[in-house]
Structure formats: structure tokens, C-alpha cells
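Project standup — Tuesday

K.O.: blocked on the structure for the chain from last sprint. Re-posting the sequence here as requested.
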Amino acid sequence: MHARGPCGWGRGGRVSVTADSYDQQQKIDTTVPHSARIWNYWLGGRDHYLVDRDAGDAYVRLAPGIVDIARSSRLFLRRAVRHLVGEVGIRQFLDIGTGLPTADSTHEVAQLLAPECRVVYVDNDPLVLVHARALLTSTPEGSTTYVETDLHDPEAIVAEAAKTLDFDQPIGLIMLNALGHVADYAEARSIADRLVSALPSGSHLVLADGTNVLQSGMAEAQQQYNKSGALPYVLRTPEELTRYFDGLELLEPGVVTLPLWRPDEPSAALEPLDEAGGVGRKK
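H.V.: unblocked you, prediction finished:
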């Protein structure tokens, strides 16, 4: 599970490898493209190899908008977390499909507004494990924890997260570009439902995934990527993404292309992109 982008959609960042992470480093395969490293490449990071750059360039040739999607996803995360901390008052976050750390990660945005915020990151990718130390930073008042657990085991995720988070108080559940890694849509919905069911009233789901309805070449680019040997990712329709919020109070403006979700600038100046998402509140 390495999320944050339509080919796997991981974050970017730069962290040195320590002796403690050496064993995990040995598990990293540099002969096939890696979604988190490609996402890092698109965002201008340095944690990638030639195979990742080649795959990233091939994707861009078919779907140039992917670079804008990578940046838009990061901005959506920042706006959603700011809303939940500043307007809703949430002080706990469960971020599933963490990917590589970079600026404006969930804990950085949340703790800047409320230093007492507690954040649990979840991933099971060896590359992310190598970089996990960068995530384990926090304000003295708050907490930042990394959990190695698989997306397909929601109950294990909740059990591990409960060691840090108080499941009697509202939690912000963040799933950006994670469920696209679940090939079967019914299973993806089941995972989301089981995670949300474990949350108390007042919790919020922040979710986004890649679509293939706006940009020609997106589906072909994803299909070619999925043949590369990397972990496949499924593009879904906005209607399918909206169903993840069934039973929740969907915040305005609903599930929309990410640049249009409560933008910091006038929406007329923003171009729609093939990534949609939204925020829903558990009643």
C-alpha cells in the first residue's frame, strides 16, 4: 500500500537512510517502477531511480495533467486538514496510505494550527518504512506515530491506531489515492465502510482517488503503467467515489475534482483535473 497518486500516488521527500532501516532498504526493488518514487519525481523530489523517471515520463506523455494532479492532491490534503482542525475542532487523524514524507504532511498542517494534534500514519511499503523516521516528528504537545499494517485489514489498522488515538473522540480518517489499489470495487467499499464504522460520531472521512473522465490518455497511461510490474491502480468514476460516503453527511461542495474543493482562490481560475474527492461527516 503506497498511496497518493493514480499510479500508486505516493508523496515526495528526502530522508537519509539510517542503520536501523538498512534491512528494509534491502527489500526495495529498484528494477521496477515504484509509485511513491514516481510521485516524488513528479513533485520535484530526489527519491527516485531511472526506472521511476522512465515510467513517470511515459505516463506524462500520455496524460500530461498527472503532474498537476500530484500537486492538487497535496493542496487538497492541506485544505481539508485545515478545515477539520480550524473549523471542526478535530485533534486526531488516521492517515492511511501515507507514502513518502514531504512538506505539508498531515501532522505538519494539523500541529501548526493545534500543536496538541495526534496523528497515526499507516502504510506497509518497505520504501516508506525506510523513510518512517521523518514522519515520527511531532510537537511536544502532540504525537506522530507510524504503523506498518495492510490496507486490506481494517480491523488491524484500528487496533494499532487505538494505541495512540482515542476512539471515543472524533477522528479525521484520511484515504488519499489508497483505495484505487484495491482492484475489486465491492472490497474497496467494504474496507472504507469497516474503517468508518469504527469511528465515533463527529469523525470525518477525507477521501480522493484518480478518475478517467476528463483527460484523454489517462486510462491508457494507467493501463500501460499497470503492465510495468508495479502495484496496479484502478481509476474510478466520480459516482463510484461518491458511494464511499454513503451514510455520511457529505460536506459542500460534495465530491468534485480536487481543485474545486473549497479552493483558496476563485474557482473560475481553476482547471478541473482527473482526481476527485470530498469530505464527509459521520453523524
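K.O.: great, moving the ticket to review. The two ends are 29 Å apart (CA to CA). DSSP finds eleven helices and eight strands in the chain.
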